[in-house]
Every structure is written in C-alpha cells, then in structure tokens.
Queue: 3 jobs
Job 1
Amino acid sequence: MSDLSDLYQQVILDHNRRPRNRGKLPTATRVAHGDNPTCGDQCSVYLVLDGDRIKDLSFDGSGCAISQASASLMTTQLKGKTAAEAQKLYDEFHHIVTTGEAPEEISDIAAFAGVHAFPARIKCATLGWHAALNALKGEDAAATTETHKD
C-alpha cells in the first residue's frame, strides 16, 4: 500500500509541477471562475463545447498544490465528455476526496483519496471541478467553496 501511496503522491506532484491544459483558451465558448476564500485559491475554467460535449478545456489560476494539481487532472479527465459524463466523474471524484475510498483499479483520479484526511483541503481539490460544472451549465456567478457542501 505504501508503494501505491507513493505513486499517487507522484501523480499530484507531477500535475502541480507540470500542469496540463493551463492558460486561457482563446476559443472558449464558456468561462467560469471559482474562488476559495478560506485559503485564497482561484481557478478559471475555459470550455469549448460541441453541442453537449466538451471539445476542449483549460484552466488558469493560483493556489495550493492540491487545487492546481486537481484542476490540471480535471482537464485531462473531462476532455471529450458530455455534461452528464462530467457530472458523473465529478461525483466519483467527490466521493474519493470525501471518503478516501478509491476504486480498485489504479487511476490518476484516485490519487486524491488521501485528501479526505485533511477536510480543509477537500475544498481545494474540488474548486476547479465546481468552476467547470458552472461553465457547463452556463452559470455566470463564480463558484465559491462557501456555497458548495464539500
């Protein structure tokens, strides 16, 4: 189990050091912002939709390693998904970070299972996801961790 924990730590560190899909997406058709006033994390998510499917997405912002790594990983997981598939993936991610129960198969998303041991960090891990879901819904108001039950 220690080897698996080390692997998961490496996934988070790698996404923090070398974020995927970082930066403003000039062709974005939807944009949403997320704010975690508790610790100052900020995250904007840029989407290009093709009907109900996420054709492309990126994120930009600042914050702790957990929030930035999670937003990076999120972009790799949501590309090509429909809004319903994105919601389902978020629900699975949320379950992982709040319970520590990861699926049996090894996946990058399971790397965040350890977050459950640090309840204040759950909001950090889910911030980008909330912004992405708001962008999918076309909601103009910023996603804030103060209004989401994490």
Job 2
Amino acid sequence: MALRLVLAVVFIAHGAHRLFGLFAGPAIGVGGPEATAQIFATMGLEPNFPLAVLAGGLALVGGVLLAIGRFTRIAAPILALMTLIAVWKTQWQWGFFLNWVAAPDRGQGMEFSVVVIGALVCLALTGAGDWSIDGRRAHSAAARSAGRARLRGKI
C-alpha cells in the first residue's frame, strides 16, 4: 500500500503540474499544457500540445487510480511506459546518475526514473493489494465463487 500511495502522489503532482501549472516554481518551471508542449517540442515529440495534454492526463488519472487502488494492473504499465519514454527522450543522454552536484551544463540522468519504473512493474505484477478497491473486489469475487462451489457440492 505504501508503494502505491507514494507513486500516486508523484504522478498526481506531475500530472497537475503538466495540466494546470500547479506547483510551479524555480525548481520545476512554469507548468501548464503550453509549457509542457514547448518541452515536448524540444524533445522532438509531435504533435506536442495534444501529447502534453495526454501525458498530463495519464499522469493525473493514473496517479488517482493508483491512490484508490483501482485498475492498478492497467495503470501501472501505462505509467511505466510513459516514464520509459521520458528516459529515452531526455535522460538517456546524461547517463545513469542524477545531477547531484547541480552542474549547469548537465541534465538529469535516469536513476530516479529507473526506480519508478521498477516500482510500477512490481505493482503491475502483484496488483494493488488488500487495502484497495481492486483487493476488496478480488476478495468478494473469491467469496462468491467459494459459495457457489459449496452449493454445487450439496446439490
């Protein structure tokens, strides 16, 4: 549950920044779909504005789905693929490590994204867990199935 909620916070924050410009500041930039589209244009992603809205929407909705634990096995791989695209388009060229010394001539490596992708793969393989909507639905379905099996055995 903790892993799912931490990832949810990260993706909700990034989605809100990309779509609405929330959390704007010197460390992260202006935000909003226009600013995100400009960043996507520098990466060579076209059409940049629709992709910016799509990426923001996927991050926001995917984060909310992770938070409530609904469709986790679908949302997690989509978010992992989106993060993998970010690694490919922006971080690969800078190597593995983050820019810990804040060198102005160097971008961020893929270290954090690799951790996020690994965590999302774990969620995709294991599911949301017992304390989630998916987990409660699985327990209810198992209980109904066991009840039907007991009834069939008595008839």
Job 3
Amino acid sequence: MKPEDTIDFHIRWAWHGIARMYNIEAAKYDTTMSVGQTLLNIDVEGTPSTKLGPKMGMESRSLTRILKSMEEKGLIYKKADTKDKRMVRIFLTEAGIAKREVSKEAVIKLNSAIHEKIGKTNLKTFFKVIKKINHILDEQASKKNGAKQRSN
C-alpha cells in the first residue's frame, strides 16, 4: 500500500499544511501556532491547568513547555483558584489577550477561505466523517488500554 492510499497520510498532510500556514502567520507576531492555539483555549475567567490539555485534545504534560514559554513572554499568569486552593487557573495577560485576537483572526480567515472553496454540504460530510474517525480512534485506544490494564 502506498502512503497516499492511507487515511492518516491525508489527515497528516492537511494538518502539516495548516500548521505551516499558521506558523508563517504567527511568526509575523513573534509567536507560534502552538502558542496561538493555547491562547484560544484559555477562557477569560481563567482555565484550570488540568483542563487545558484535554480541552485542546492534548496530554496535559505536553503543554508544560508551551505554558512555561508563554509565562516567560508575559502572555499568561497562573493563580490559585479562589474556591479550591489546590487548583491552579491560567489567565491571559493584556499581551496574551492581544495575541489571542491575532490568533482568532487567523483561524477565522482560514475557515472563511475553506468554507468559500469547499461549500457547506462538503464540509458537513467532512465533519461527519472526521467525527466517526475520532470515535473509531477512541474505541481503539479504549480497547488497547483495557487489554493493557488486564495484563498488568
């Protein structure tokens, strides 16, 4: 089987194209796509650090380096939750809010271009298919985790 005959090849190829386009745009503002995506997922009222990874579809530990960099650049700050002192919330600074707006504009611009070129019906089909693929992946992961737990 040739790579271009596989589903994951096309998903990965599209994602790399999107990431490249976002990184080119983000570089104009001295940031990266990863930082932009993270900024877009931090709520105005703050986001619990433990919820950010799952909200983005990432493992929480994968965000550690990004968050540290964002904090050093003054885009975010961390603060203990007012009700539960064990929980840490992540908030945007003024600079973070400004870069978030830039990121939001880039996402809107790409989505508008795709909607215009692909059309509502094709996008509806795409979303239906990609949700099914994600469901299958979740099922596969659950089966593997279940088998792994039984063998331990």
